[in-house]
Amino acid sequence: MLKQRMFSEIKTLxxxxxxxIEAANDLKALDDVRVTALGKKGRITALxxxxxxxxxxxxxxxxxxxNALKDEIAALIEKQEAALKxxxxxxxxxxxxxxxxxxxxxxxxxHIHPISQTVEELTAIFADMGFTxxxxxxxxxxxxxxxxxxxxxxxxxxxxxxxxxxPNDPEEDGERAHKLLRTHTSSVQIRHMQAHxxxxxxxxxxxxxxxxxxxxxTPMFHQMEGLLIDKDIHMGHLKxxxxxxxxxxxxxxxxxxxxxxxxxPFVEPGAEMDIACSRxxxxxxxxxxxxxxxxGWMEILGCGMVHPNVLKNCGIDPDTYxxxxxxxxxxxxxxxxxxxxxxxxxxESDVRWLRHxxxxxxxxxxxxxxxxxxx
Length: 375
Ligand code: PHE
Hints:
Number of helices: 12
Order of helices and strands: HHHHHEEHHEHEEHEEEEHEHH
CATH topology of the largest domain: BirA Bifunctional Protein, domain 2
Radius of gyration: 35 Å
Bound molecules: phenylalanine
CATH architecture of the largest domain: 2-Layer Sandwich
Mean pLDDT: 91
Number of strands: 10
CATH class of the largest domain: Alpha Beta
Number of domains: 2
C-alpha cells in the first residue's frame, strides 16, 4: 500500500517538476526550480530523507527510483539551461549589429608611446646586425643583479645602484634569496649565458629600478642591454658595432663618437660612449661641425669588454671566449632623438603629451623612411 503511494507520489512529483522546468523562461527562474527540487531543502531531497525509516528491501527499490528521478530532473534542467543560453545568444546576435562600413574617426586615433617607438627602432638596427632579443625578470635576486656581475657583497659600486628590496624568498638560499627590483638589464647577460652555450649575440629591453627622482631620473626607467661573446673579439669590434649603431639611430652618417674610460665592475676595460653635440645658439644640436671640429660631447651609453670573472661565473672559459657588453637608457635615447626635455613626463600618462610626442601608428618613422617627425 505504502509502496503504491510512494510510487504515484514520485510520478506526480516528476511531472510537476518537469512542467516547472519547461515553464522557466530565464536562467534565474530555472535555478529557483533547481533549488526547490534538488536543493538542501528541496522536494526530492525531502523524499530521500524518508528512506532512512524504511525497511531494507523497500529502501533498496525506493532508493533506486528516487535516484533515477534525481538524474532525470538534473538532465531536464541541463537541457533547459542549454536551450535558454542558446536563445539568449540568438537574441544578442540579432540585436547587437555592428556597422563595419563606418570609417575610423582619425581624431580619436591613439599614438605610439616614444618608448615603444624607440624600442622598435633599436630592435631593427640590432636585428640588422644579427642580434636576437633575450628577456629576464624585473624581480631579480642579489646574485644575478650584483654578485655574478662581479659586484660581490660589500662592493662599493653597489651603492651607486640603490634599489627597492623585497622580502626574502624562503625557497632559495644566500644571495639568490635576496629579492630586489633589478637596477639594470645586465642581469639578463648572466641569465642568458648560464642558459645557453656561446657564442652569444643578444640584446634585451626592460624596465629597471633605482631609488632616484629628479628631472633626469625616475624610480622606474627602461634600459637596453647588448652582449656579444665569441672567439677573438676585441675592443675594435665593440667600437665599430656601437659607432654603426649610433649613426644609424641618430641618422647622422659621420656623427663623431668617442670612448671615455669608465668603471663598471662587470667589464674590463670599461668605457662610456659620447656623441658630438653643440649647444651654440641655444638648444641642442647633435653632430659635429661641417669642418669636422666638435664643440662638445654628450654621454649616451656604458660599455666594455666582459670581465673574465663574469665569464667564469657563467661557465665560460675566458681564454677561449671574449666579448663586449653595452647598456643604455631608452628614455635618454628617445629624449635626444626626439627632443623631449623632461624624463618625468614619460610616465605622467598625459594624453596631450602623448599626442605631441607620440607617433601616428600608420605613419611612424622607420629605418627606411627616416625621422619624419621633428619637434
Ligand atoms: N649596466 C650599466 C648601467 O646600468 C650599463 C652597462 C652595461 C655598462 C653593459 C657596461 C656594459 O649603468
